[in-house]
Amino acid sequence: MLLTAAFVACGFAASAQTDPVLLKVAGENITKSEFERVYFKNNSKETGNDEKAVREYLELYINYKLKVKEAESLKMDTIQTLLTN
Fold first, then answer.
1. Residue 31 lies in a domain
2. pLDDT of the residue at 85
3. Which residues pair with 21 in a beta bridge?
4. Residue 71 structural domain
């Protein structure tokens, strides 16, 4: 059992090194792979991948995450009318 726990812990440490945390928003870690997935999903090839475009999208992404956290803290994610529509 202890040996299994050690392998699991090593696995998590290894995966954390290969997918670094880029930033923390409202206590939530945002990894490089998560940000890249969302960025490329929401941006066309015409947008480009230059530093300015990524920085602008990063600002939008941070604001989005903050709004989601605020809505959750206000229990807006449990309002029945929103859940049924």
1. yes
2. 55
3. 31
4. 20-84
* Assigned domain for 1 exists: no
**What is the reported pTM?**
0.66
What would the two tokens of residue 35 be?
């940000």
Q: Is residue 76 part of a domain?
A: yes
Asked if the model's pLDDT at residue 83 lies above 70, the reply is no
Asked whether residue 4 is assigned to any structural domain, the reply reads no
At 47, the amino acid letter reads T
Cβ-contact 30, 23 below 8 angstroms = yes
- Is residue 22 packed enough to be buried (19+ CB in 10 Å), middle (13-18) or exposed (0-12)? middle
Contacts for 35 with CB less than 8 Å, ≥ 6 apart: 22, 58, 61
Task: Tell me the average pLDDT of the chain.
Answer: 80
Q: Domain count of the chain?
A: 1
